[in-house]
Amino acid sequence: MTIPTSEMISVEDARARILAFFERLEPEQAPVIEALGQVLAESVVAGFDIPPLDNTAMDGYAVRAADTDGASEGDPRTLTVIADLAAGYVLDTAVGEGEAVRIMTGAPIPPGADAIVPFEETDEPLREPGQAPTRGDSVGVFKAARLGANIRRRGEDIETGQAVLEAGRVMRASEIGVLSSIGRTEVSVYRRPEVAILSTGDEIVTPGEERRAGQIYDANAHSVAALVRAFGGRPRLLGIARDTVEDLTAKIHSGLDADMIVTSAGVSRGDFDVVKDVLAREGAIDFWTVRMKPGKPLAFGAFEAPDGRRVPHLGLPGNPVSSMVAFELFGRPAIFKMLGRSGWERPIVRAITRDRVVNTDGRRFYARCIVTKGEGGRYYADLTGPQGSGILTSMSAANGLTVIPEDLPHAEPGDEIDVMMIDWEHPG
Fold first, then answer.
1. Which domain CATH number covers 133?
2. Percent of the chain scoring above 90 in pLDDT
C-alpha cells in the first residue's frame, strides 16, 4: 500500500513492510571455505569416526601402564624402546611386557599399549630447537602412568553416522573446520543475495576520476557495498546514473538480474522529479518518510524484471551518513532474511552519555557515538563530534548509534540511554 510522502511512519513499521517482501533464497552448492556466514541447507552426517583410531595426545612413549607401576625419579622403570612412530603412520608390532614405542602427537596407539608417558616424565634429555632427537635403546620412566593416560579415543569427537551439523546452522570458522575434518569440500547452503547498487546525480563522480568544481566523489555506493559484503551479500556496483530519464532507466535495467537493487539519492522532497518519476514508472515504488534521524526519506518497492521476477528496490537518502544508517536498519535485515539467517538485531546496551544529545523534531535519533567500558563495568557513550548527516567521519569513528526515542527532546550528561552497537571492537 502506498503511504503518502508527508506521513511519517515508524522505523518498525517501515522495516516490517520491507521484510514482508523478502524470502529465503534457494540453496546452492558452495566450496566449504567460501561458505562463511551462509546458512546450511542440509544436515551433515559423518561417514567415519573422528579420530579414526585411538591416538596420542602428546609426544612421549606408548607403554603398558602396568609396566610403570611404582615408578619415581629415585626408582625409575626401564623399558626397551622397540620403535619410533610418527603421526600419519601405523605400527603393526605389538608393545609387549617391558617395552615402549617412542611416539609423536597424533600417531595411532600401537597394539598392546594402553597409556602415553610424556617425554618430560622420562629420562630422555630435553633437546634444543634444531637438535636431532636422542633415540636410546631404552628409556627410564619417572612416574607411573594411569591407564588410558594421554590417549584420544576413536570417535571421541565424531562417530560414524552422527549428524555433526544440522540444517539452519550459520557457517562459522568452527563449522568449516568440522566439515573439513570429515572430508567435505562442498556443502549445500542458502545462496548469498546479489545486491546491485546505483548512485544517482550529476554531481557524483567515481573515485579515481577527475573531479570538477561542484562535484563530489561517490562515497555512498562504496560504503553500502562494504555493508552488503559485511552482512553476507554480494555487492555489484552499477555505476552512477545521471539525472536523465534515459540514463537512469538504463542503469536500473542493468541491475534487474540481481536479488535487490539499492539506489542512493533522489527520494527526498527536494530531489529532481525525474528520479522519482523513473523509479515509479519502472516499478511499484512507495515513497516514505520514516520517523528517524538521520535517514528520513526512504523508498521501497519492486521493479518488474524481464523474467517475471519482482526485484525489490530500496531507495536510500543521498547524504552519506543517512545512507549508511538507513541500510543498517533496513538493508541488513533484508539480507539476513534472504540468507535464511535470524538474529539481524544488533545488541542494545545501556550507556551513560557524557554529552548532551538534543532531539527536537520528534524523530528517533541515531547519533554516532563511541561506547567504552568504565569503572564497575558500566558503559559510557561519547558523541563522535558534529552529527550532520553529511559528516561521514562521524560513522568512521563510531562503534554505536544512540537510540533516542521520538518523545525524548534531549538527554543530559549522566543520563542512561540505549545504544545500538554496530561494532564491538572499534574503537572503544
1. 2.170.190.11
2. 82
Q: pLDDT, tens digit, for every residue of 407-428?
A: 999 999 999 999 999 997 755 4
Per DSSP, the three-state class of 293 is strand
- Asked whether the CA dihedral 97, 100, 105, 107 is positive or negative, the reply is negative
Tens digit of pLDDT for each residue in 326-372?
999 999 999 999 999 999 999 999 999 999 999 988 999 999 999 99
**Residue 338 located in a structural domain:** no
Q: Grid coordinates representing 334?
A: 533484508
Which residue carries 521493479 as its cell? 303
For 314, the 3-state DSSP assignment is strand
124 pLDDT band (50/70/90 cuts)?
confident
Among residues 295, 289, 303, the alpha carbon closest in space to that of 323 is found at: 295
Q: What is the pLDDT of residue 328?
A: 98
> Which amino acid, 101?
V
Torsion sign, CA atoms 418, 422, 425, 426 = negative
CA distances from 9 to 5, 288, 289, 299 (A): 10, 7, 6, 12
381/426 Cα distance (integer angstroms): 13
CA 177 distance to own-chain centroid: 16
CA 164/CA 243 separation, integer angstroms: 54
pTM above threshold 0.85: yes
Residue 43: domain span:
31-50+157-190
**Maximum alpha-carbon separation in the chain:** 95
Say how far apart CA 94 and CA 100 lie, in whole Å.
10
The span from the CA of 244 to the CA of 80, in Å, is 89
Q: Are residues 233 and 284 in the same domain?
A: yes
Strands 260-264 and 310-316: parallel
